[in-house]
Hints:
The chain is of the alpha/beta class and 332 residues long. It has helices at residues 2-10, 37-49, 66-75, 94-102, 119-122, 138-150, 176-182, 187-193, 208-221, 230-238, 244-259, 276-279, 291-305, 310-317, 321-331, and strands at residues 22-24, 29-31, 56-59, 84-88, 127-131, 152-154, 161-163, 167-172, 196-199. A hairpin with a 4-residue loop joins strand 1 and strand 2 (29-31). Helix 6 (138-150) packs across helix 8 (187-193), helix 9 packs across helix 11 and helix 14 (310-317) packs across helix 15. It starts with a helix and ends with a helix.
Amino acid sequence: MEHRARHQFESGACRHCGLVPLVDLLRKRALVVADSKAMRATLRRAARFASSSAPVAIFGESGTGKEVVARVLHTNSPRALKPFVAINVAALPTELLESELFGHARGAFTGAHRERQGLFEEANGGTLFLDEIGEMPLPLQAKLLRALQGGEVRRVGGAHSFAVDVRVVSATHRDLPALVKAGTFREDLLYRLKVLTLRVPPLRERPEDILVLARHFLDAEGSESQGFSRAAEQVLTAHSWPGNVRELANAVQHGAALANGEPIEPEHLPEELLGAVASRPVGKIRGLKTLAEVERAHILEVLEACSGSVAEAARALDIGRNTLWRKLKQLE
């Protein structure tokens, strides 16, 4: 699948989602790899958003690739030839963050010897990506809200506001509605940011992507390693990947370094992965459900489709009503 997907991607838009999944980074171009239904659904949704200039909020756990999805949005938008500017909101103190976002006038504070444009100005005509938006201090949230509402910014210490044309894409692993209830995030800003929303599923919800991504990362390493042994693949697919795609990329880099040109074996992978196969319940490997779980879900789905009528559900399931009643009793 990896080679087929690579050829398909490099020749144009992905036939599954309609996006061109090659994105520009500072030093290279990155290929978005997705073989799972869950990730393809996210990308199809992103494809519908690409032509809009409305703000997009991307939700997902750390390491799932939220910035990559944001870059895909930009690459496939009418703003693609304009800048994509990214900042991690959590990485800077309040004073510095305000200056980074909005710029400052000369003499605005000690050390401001000349005026400086902010990231809103730098991203003019393009996309501004605000990572970890949930960590933004409350005083700055008010200024960001004003910029989003009016399309205008004012430099720190400046006397005048000026217009900017920026699409804002934000991302967070935090529960923003919970932060609103806690009083640490503005409700009006939340609704301004999440005009459109995307959820990037964690890697444990898209196990089909694990080996495809692992082989992609190994290719990107430029390693002479001859791929993964069957045993190593079993270790990779059994791990729950709490660090998601970022953790997988690091594990592949670790394995390639230790394999030294040979096929990557389990002993070449990080130690924390090696207990996964033995400790993980067999029925949960690769997200599989038990037969009882599948039967229960199907019965409930048919009942709902039949508006709760046991007689109609029994006919649809091709079983007797008494049999269905017995199964329903077992579900209680």
